[in-house]
Amino acid sequence: MAWSTSQLADLAGTTLRTIRHYHEVGLLPEPERKANGYKSYGVPHLVRVLRIKRLTGLGLSLTQIADLGDGDEHPGEALREMDAELAATIERLQRVRGEIAVILRQESPTDLPPDVAAMLANVELSPQDRSFTVVLAQLVSPEALSSYAEVLKRYARVPVLVEFDELPADADEATRQDLAERMRVHPQVLEMRAAFPVPASLYGASPYSEKFVAQTIVKTIAELYNKAQLDVLVRLSG
């Protein structure tokens, strides 16, 4: 008994378009035709279509299947490659699920590395400080970032730091000098300066050059803080 193209497609659980595509790409040999010109498919064609369908279901591309040839050669190498890719994908997805679980459980921000986000979950940083931390996370080594986050864990929006966060750009000279002097002796500022006495102690192990990191940090600070705040920071470092 011979089957028509539509019957073959029905038996294989696929479509006419798919059968025709297999012909076009050379995966399925053209069958003989009846006297009336209609195609006449046999068991080898059905077996071939079912094998192609099974292999594509396992993730092999039509190109990979074509490379196997027309025989029933076991696709061991192709499946081993697919298995390795799936293992890597599963590992990545498991890691992503773990990160999502932390974000959902702790309502952590999504703009920081998961370990740092977890450390800072309950820290009330200003928008400028959080943005600076996000940029810093791209520049410094994981170890340096963890050290920085450890200092930030003890951050609290005490009056003098709130005053700095809310300092208007047109603050006068006396206000800026007074704020700088009070910040200079504040425990949180002292702790940060003690943890990173010189810039190189923060970004010395960065994957980028010291010059690039320094320039990027200066640019970031310049864009995040207003003129008066920048002046206070300069006075602090003086």
From TrEMBL:
TM annotation in the entry: none
The UniProt keywords, alphabetically, are: DNA-binding
Gene3D superfamilies xref list:
1.10.1660.10
Q: What's one Pfam family the UniProt record gives for this protein?
A: MerR_1
Write out the GO MF terms.
DNA binding; DNA-binding transcription factor activity
Entry-linked CDD domains: HTH_MerR-like
The record ties this protein, via InterPro entries, to:
DNA-bd_dom_put_sf, MerR-type_HTH_dom, MerR_fam
HTH merR-type domain ranges (all copies):
2-71
Full protein name? DNA-binding transcriptional regulator, MerR family
